[in-house]
## 1
Amino acid sequence: MVSAARTRISVIGTGYLGATHAACMAELGFEVLGLDVDREKVETLASGRVPFYEPGLEEVLARNLDNGRLRFTTDYDEAAAFADLHFICVGTPQRDDSGAADLSYVKAAVEALAPRLRRPSVVIGKSTVPVGTAAVLAARIRRLAPAGDAVELGWSPEFLREGFGVEDTLRPNRIVIGTDSPRVEAAMREVSAPQIEAGIPFLVTDLQTAELVKISANAFLATKISFINAMAEVSEAAGADVMQLAKALSFDDRIGGKFLGPGLGFGGGCLPKDIRAFMARADELGVEPALSFLREVDAINQRRRARTVDIARGLIGGGFAGRTVGVLGAAFKPNSDDIRDSPALDVASTIASLGARVTVYDPEALERAEREHPELNYARSMLEAVRDSEVVLLLTEWAEFRDADPDELGKVVAERKIVDGRNVLDPEHWRARGWTYRALGRP
């Protein structure tokens, strides 16, 4: 095995996935060159700053810049000359004209890198792509690369959870590599050696199976979340408590308690776009009925947002016009500043469009939220956000909000009314402090 000190890796794309992967590969002892066509992003990372919020990443980045194992560039020639192992970590957002994945960034990366590969090399895709993409890209790389068949491609999906990206890269729960090439497999075993030695499962599959793993996992998680939220709809109609229902279900080993938290539903840059891209690809493959259930998964998720607005409207007498509303949360999940398809901002923006004065606070996502949603007002503290509010909505389950003191908040609000969009507060405690408490799926 080649020693980590002599192994050189390039990481193409330095967004959330790429920046995290590059820094963590350097942390494991490899020489790493991160590449991005966005010069500002490259300069930011090269200065030791992370352009998004991810706990622990800035420390890993700074440490490996200082020790010389990590550098960044905008030059594909430099990356091709530097490394013999290249990871493609660019984004695959949802296309504007359909639910399908936009592969333009992946294709651009291949078109730019391949013609510069003049010696035997391994290219590993980590981006989430529709099944069948890797085989097409492998053929394209062989045609474009001066080294021809000596350049081989494999696919190793990422399984990062925002807020836990460093942990999930250094200590993943499994490593999957799609390939039929012994050389590609050997390269992945080399860079994964610390994890393999620690007992982390290492699975070798064909390309198509590897492509399906990530998107299938996300489809399953989205389905589980929407299932318990569908039960929340039923619970409300029947006068049952969905939290007690979820707890009872969690003791069944076949079901478990993870991702069984009822509430406002999922958002972000992965689950929503991945299930839509999965449905679009199934349609292209002629097996659309096999994934038709995901349409209802998506619909249930969207209905949670509308139901949250309805509950808040009911608490203040049936209309938002001229009312003051405080919103706690802007990021789609805690420990992140990602606002892509954020349920919190969707609800806040909807209420504002109905005539309310809405003020939002989030510990990390305010800057991004202000750029995307200028129609909202923003506060720099929780108390400032809820001051004079006639109803408060907790929409992102940051620890600061979960641990909020109902008496402290009660001193500054106009009315003690709260909608717990994430089912993280103790209803009896808040009601004992004089609050009218409502949550999705609870009496």
## 2
Amino acid sequence: MQPLFRALTGVLAAGLLAGSAMPGVAAASDPPGRSSTTRETIDWKPCPKDTTADCGTLRLPVDWARPSGETFDLAVARRKAADPGRRVGVLLVNPGGPGASGVEFAVDDAPAHFSADIQERFDIVGFDPRGVGSSHPVKCSSELLDQQPSVYPRNQAEFDRLADFNRALRADCRRHTGPLFDHADTLSVVRDMDALRRALGEKKINYFGHSYGTLIGEQYAEEYGDRIRAMALTANIDHSLGAREFLVSSAATAEDSFHQFVKWCDRTSSCALHGRDVTAVWDGLLARADRGEVHDPESPDRALTANDIALFAVKAFYGPYWDELATYVAGLDARKPAERRGSERSQQADPETRAEPFPAVFCQDWRIRAKDYREYARLTQAELRAAPHMRGSPRAHKGAAGCIGWPDEVNNPQHRLRITEAPTILMLNSLHDPASSFAWAANVHRQTRGTTVLVPYAGAGHSVYNRSDCTRDAVDDYLTELRIPSAGSSCAPTGTH
């Protein structure tokens, strides 16, 4: 659930609504709740960062149940089809997160990501989902964010402290963000995306979604399936999972990626840990971190926790960047144990607020609310059993922990997919994805048999499209010509994966 192509550290000219007689009049096929106060066109201008792309905004309701209420500006970017004579239509894109910028993806990443054929035949259109990037971002107090207690409470008192913090943070973010904070869920994003379709003047869209962007695609197909020409989803989210299933499956896929790393290191002489018992080195390093003996090489005063190290590993598994991970682990292992020191706050002044959309989106999309320490401890123990070396999935665990203390009501709760009107949807997923478990993709496919085709990539890593000619051609042929891979198709791993 991470944007594409990030380092380890660290649409046609817009017109009136399709089918509308005049501004403010809904087409017969459009859903109720349209408002004449929303702006239905996009004022395109060259993007400041790259004038070969166009940028603009679309004014939309904060609350689709109250379309005449407050509004926000949805940030949009497009790259027009390079060969207008062969143009198929628009390709809406979302790179995941929750929290990744579709505008940045369209402007910065799309030219390197998509093949020349896709760029020639589609207007590639990215948007920042509400609460993200330039679309009225969710903002929270920097000082409060820096005070987060451990997401691994050891008793009821620490659990209560975490719940109190989450409630205080939620109130703080709502205060800094305004009403949109309560409407940052993916179902609201889906309604925004259909409004974008109308503003682009398109009866049907094409969509490419990655990671958390697949949830946007899945739910768009549920709500507006007849408005899709083609949809390709990579690294798929299964939104039917309960708390235990979500956490355990996330832990299991992180653990699987760890074992893939160990196997690679065992057979690869260039691995910095080659010839050693990689699992023993790893377990020993995390044990030292538990004792406060491992410090950040770049900030020696800061002790690294086992969770810090595991999170670095998960990010490396996304690539996978196994060489970098092996070098990192070997370097930490070779450093002499340091005495435990008190944490020291940075003297650099932080801005008063900073963007923090993840909890606002995740906690409105998932009903995951441990009620007390006993329930939370059972979930954590289940994670540890599924991932004894990775100790669960750091990102999934933190996401779930961030919802403790939130209200029980969820805008967009989990459910089995019910897609009835969409055309065939193409799904791709790595067998050894560290974040979006292949089991998730398989389960989504089972829920939508007759509507989806699943093509496994039999290798490692999180992004799938550019893994090989096989994965890229499967998506390109489908998007351009609607050629659907035959059932049972798969793509072999590339390189040493």
